[in-house]
Amino acid sequence: MKLFLRLLMVLLISLLSLTACGGGDDDDDNDAGDDDAGDDDAGDDDAADDDAADDDAGDDDSGDDDDDDNDADDWSDFFPPPAGPLGTYRIYINEEETEFSDIPVEVVGEDSTTFPGETYSLLQAGDFDASATNGQRTWFDLYTVLQAGIRRSEVYEDLKAPDPTFSITFDPAILIEFDQAVGETRTNDTTGTWDFGDGVTVESDFSAAATVQDDNASIDVPFGTVTGCRKVALAVTETGDDGIPFTTDSTFYVHPDYGIIRIEMVPGFFSIDLVALP
User: What is the pLDDT of residues 167-184, one digit of tens each?
Assistant: First the structure.
């Protein structure tokens, strides 16, 4: 069970940080993520422009989805994500959040060879080009907006080793949905096979239940104070050969411009914060 907790922690970093890769704009607040190149702002008074009083009445936003409604269109640039760095995340490993590690996350690119006839986005957490001792690679199906299928994940305790320390392969991919309305839960089931690199494999049944709790949450992290977040509760249940289910609960905050902002997993056990974007 401890292996599952550890893997889920890294899976969540990878899954939710992928949304940080785009330059989508969910509002007209003139922030770093805004792309208003196509706007006709002749009617705007942007001299001071924190946009608190700017209703953009003069804008021609026919091509923009700047309605701040946090709907699927706001996230469409991220599915699938382009190759490149996503950002740096801080993993706290104690309840007081005094012990932590900062890790880079990036999309390596599309992979159509690992699973013949199937194409996935390959995403990795950890610096695979340096002397770091831990890292993880995950294959995602990211071709439906606000849905993520996880096909396989590999965990490395030695990044210079040719093979992962252990891995898990889901067949079919375990699907996590977060496009539903506030209060709605989506559940998906699959089978996962653990491989511990010593010729021993273990098969388990998995169920992922995602519930959107808030669509305008605010959270403080090292990156700053972020408002307009989607708050999602995720419960992943694993049932092994003993028939006893084990559930890991987590809560995460995600934003269409900045990606994952914070993850609270098994309160007092792990938490993850956004530190910086590339």
Answer: 999 999 998 888 899 999
**Alpha-carbon span 109 to 122, nearest angstrom:** 6
Q: What is the pLDDT of residues 86-140, one digit of tens each?
A: 888 888 877 777 778 888 888 899 999 999 999 999 988 887 776 655 788 899 9
Q: What is the three-class DSSP state of 6?
A: helix
CATH fold label, 2-27+67-276? YmcC-like fold (2.40.360)
What would the mean pLDDT of 45-71 be, rounded to a whole number?
A: 45
Residue labelled with tokens 């049932």:
239
Residue from 214, 211, 225, 212 nearest 262 by CA: 225
Token code pair at residue 76: 């469409």
pTM over 0.85: no
Asked if 210 and 185 count as a contact pair (C-beta separation under 8 A), the reply is yes
Q: What is the DSSP string of 212-270?
A: EEEEEEEEEETTEEEEEEEEEEEEEEEE-TT--EEEEEEEEEEETTTEEEEEEEHHHHE
End-to-end CA separation in angstroms for the chain: 34
Among the listed residues 255, 272, 263, 276, the one whose alpha carbon sits nearest the alpha carbon of residue 78:
255
